[in-house]
Fold Adhesion G-protein coupled receptor G4.
Amino acid sequence: MMDKETQIYSTLLSILVLHGASLIYADPASLWGRKVDFMRYGCTHWELAHSIPSLKGLSVCVEIQRSILTPHWTVFMYSHPGLGHVDIGLKGRDNSLTGENYLLLWLFGRVWSTTFKIRLNTWYSVCITWSEVALSPRLYINGNSVDISYSGEQSGTHTGNYIVADGHLTLGASHFLNNGKMHLETGTDFQGNVTRFRMWNQELPVSQLEQCVDGNVVRWMAKDWHTHGCAPVDDTEHQCVWSLYEVQMNVMIYRWDTQETNEYKARDLVHNWVENVLPPNMYIHTVLVSKLERDNTTGESTVLMDDSLQQDSESVMVIPIENQFACLVYLNVIPGADVSLVQHEVKLLLQNEHSADNIVLFPVHSTIYISPVESLPVVTLEPPHVTTMSSPSTSPALVVLTTASTTGTFLPSSIVTGSKPGSVTSSKPVSTFASDQTMNSSAFTIPSISVSTEGTVSESFFKVDLTVTLAGSSMNAEQKIQAWINETLTKEKMSLLNFEFLWKASSLTPIGNGLNHSEQSPLTSRTSHNCRFHVQATTSSTINETIDQIRNSLEVPYDTGSVILDAEPDQIIVCHITPGRCPQQQHQTRQGLFNWPKTSAQHVASYPCEGNTNSTAERKCLLASNNKARWAQPDLQQCPYVVATIPDLEGIMVTAENANDVLDMIECLLSNHTDLNDHELSTILNKLSAVVNITKVTPALGKVIVEILSDILESNSNFHPVTNNILDITESIGDRLSGFSGENFSLVAPGLAISVVNVCPDQFHNLTFGVSSPMQGKSPEVYINQHPFDSTVAFISLPPSLRASFPSGPGVQPRILFQFFGTPALFKDGRKYKALNTFVVSASVTNATGPIQGLKEPVAVTLHHLQDKPSELDVLCVFWNFSKKNSNGGLGGWDPTGCYLHNTSYDHTTCLCDHLTHFGVLLDLSRTPVDETNGKILTIISYIGCGVSSIFLGVTVLTYTAFEKLRRDYPSKILLNLALALEGLNLIYLLNSWLSSLGSSVLCVAVAITMHYFLLASFTWMGLEAVNMYFALVKVFNVYVPSYILKFCALGWGIPLIICGLVLILRRDGYGSAPYGASLEPSDDVFCWVQDDVTFYVSVVGYILLVLLFNMAVFLVVLVQLRNMRFNRPAGMRSGLFKDLRGVASLTFLLGLTWAVALFTWGPVRVPLLYMFSILNSLQGFFLFLFYCLMKENVRKQWRVHLCFGRFRLQDYSEWSQTATVPAKTKLGQAVKFPSVKSVRSNKSSTTESTSASSDSSQREVSIRRPNLGLLCLNGLTLPRAQPTHCAPVHRDIPLPQEHGYAVSPWLTKTGSHLESDIN
């Protein structure tokens, strides 16, 4: 007896050694979720490890991402030594000059091309299909058909209409064959990433190519490829979500009674084992099991042992092959999940052995392979058969197990359906891939074996897996099957629980019934359905008797006349389960505290309400789908709220037991609040802090807290008093988080992310943390040790010197905590002219040896700007100082100590700091125009002012255009042109936002150019007004300009045109649209204007400054002249102060001097001066109308003559000709004769009339007669002074011959009072 037990334990130990060894040395993993990075050093190409058969049709799919431009590049290439051409391949060419690329498709030596452009750093799914009947291949990119054309290029001998077998396939480079050896072609490398290369032996539709199914000729599996030292890397950018999977594996079953296990028992064992280990979202569709059989054709036995142990027979244990089984398990994952994740999770879950009664099941790990399949089996199949070599002896077939190494494979080779009469027969080939397995010994504990006993119970529960064949209409099949099961069990005095309808197979119609579709009976339509449910039985029968009772009742066919439901005995799997009882639980809710007692499954517990003891709350203990008892949500409808508002939470003490309940209450209360007052905010944060400090922070608990904090941060609340509290809570979550697998774990919610990384001090060299751009209402993505990319908004890199700050001591695990805050409103420190223009990111070390500061190597922080930074504004690198008390009311604030700017651009800033904490970037707003509120007011003022100016400028233009007598002099014509320029500027400004909102880039550029042109034209004409005034008041004599106004128009309208043209030629992107205003908040208003800073400062600011400087100089000269004339005029003839101020004001607006106010909008007076600037300049057109139309006497007279009626109408009057003759200097003693001229102005004209015409006569043609020569002294556009030899000086004391009809010009009087009168 002892020898028997010793043999049993020795055999079991041998099984466990083999089991552990296969765990260590498993098959190569699938490549799903991995990619080839050919940019890595030493990565040249991959080569297919096996041959390709002859193909008369194929489909190839691959996903590619190019990183850099190269003249020639190859994705893949397949060729045969005897052909001399490329059988099939995908290549490309780049044009470095034009930036264009061409995608080339090779088939049978012929080249097809397409104009589809493959952009850099962008993933593309490229599929090629071909069949022997097709004239050309088909190309699909990202699921869309792409046109291809035959280029006429061909090489080698065309093989006809099939792919030749036994060629060479390379991935990532081209190759050529020389004497049967393969060599790579230089300069054809693919510089980028490749993943999911698959090939099928037929032409598939594009819809099937997009599925996450592996190929049947070439698979994306490591064992199919020779990597040549280029190992695959993780692919985090792609996910392929799929639901249908096939699991291949071999299992070994050991029985303590040493009896043989039949296939039905093995199938039940495998089914129960797989079902118990898989999560609830993975459903078993079919389990197929077959014994490993001997091959009677050879008469030999395969002994699987290591060569070193073959000589030692005592090291070998043998087990009958009847206890070895090959299995196929088909799974349906609902909802679908990424293929790589499913493969990893399922293989991990199938590692452990399974015990049942006196049987132990061991999976052979090296044979487990999970692959996505296109569809699940639609008929009942017999288990697969695997054939092994038989022994020449008459003894039973044996599999030899050793304690050392063993090689072999147990994968099934084919699946054949049953041959039962009336069943549908089909076969499904299963790929077999031979591989060598190496198994080494491993030590572990032998599991305990228990044998179940039967007994009498009053209430018991059972789990049933049932496959039903439905003959007839399958409409509402789920309801029909559920109704049948419920009716059947009710007859047996049992209850149906947790019915799950898992899947429906395709319709199955018997073959060869001789009926066409119209003749078929409704009952000939058969479908197969699978369901799962629990049964509650209250009986005195034993467990086995109840199982038989359930099985027998479900075996009886159910016929309603319209449908027939039938289940085969082998498709009814019944297992007894013991769900246990729901535990005693203290449950804190908004309706009060409830103490639920221990309760059996499917029973209801009741408890009186805290707010009203006359009412009762109920809670049911359910039998869950995982076969265990669990509490359902309580029914509290009869109980009033005890915690009705957020302040009511103060009366609840947080404990480890009710922490989750408190969080549930907070979530419920926050769902009805869009904003929180200070008291409510403080109450919630205090409870969250208590939960974190009292309870073990698991990933699930941490996620709930982070989501609550995210909801708080998205509310309209004042975070100023509680910023430090929120930061302390997030810090505590990261420090106390436990129970997660792997080295790092992240908790994310909208606007908030917390990541913890457990590091090994000896292996720490560098650590990075990046966060992608968080969209509104969505959680950001976190990247650990990955470089930033375009959508990264925060990135922090920790230096190796941080290792010195890690905590030391036995059992202490250093941890680095990263945090990201996407709510800038959380960080306010009262700075008036500094604004946070980035999100906030932080890093810290848990249990550090001391404050982490003064690092030898700085911490690099790169933050993306929330709004593009104007080039004229400065940024400041800062950190959040918790202890800062000199600002923000002692609640902490931003501090630049230890941080400095590394570099900055319009969209991001990089800072370097010598310590760890919360980092951000402040934008210096002291140079920005105004805050948001004042900015909106100023915008409204500008629009109103420009609108008013546009109206009155229009009146001014119409007045001077309609009345010819008003524009006879030069100043009036200059004024008319200035009014036209300002009118255009005001109108285009008013229409700019509307035109830019149309979304046309061409229209926006045209609007920006037009506005730029009219702005320059306005200032040009202001400058010409100053030039005209300078000629009239300073250079009074010897000034003659032919075609005076014509040349002024050429300058006034031509110079702006030249400048705008140069901008278009030199900087094509100089014009465009941008958000309107200087606010940092996002704005939908856009404005078409000059976008390039250099262009703006040169062509706008510089030009305007030059004009203003010149106008100011002329203005000062005029003021000096005015002062001199006031003092030289007799006391009785001096004008009043009001008239002088009116003249100064008119010149100020005429010369545009009010624009100079912008130069002084700094410091405390910035806002008032901006208001002044907006009011004065937007109303410039109105003031021009006021001074040069409304207050000008001759304009009013013209209005009265032409526009008024009755007693207000003024009879037409004649004015003097607005020409004058300017005397030149004559020789001393020589008389000067003036031709007859009319007065420059009416003596009745008001002094304001001459303001526009500074000097009416000085700007006209100057005719100087020399009696002795009779020559005309002319001055050109360069306006040089007349030479004394040509024009004699004027003798001031010569009497003027008024008696001959000459009018005496006022500016020739001795007192020079004409200057003062003209200005006034």
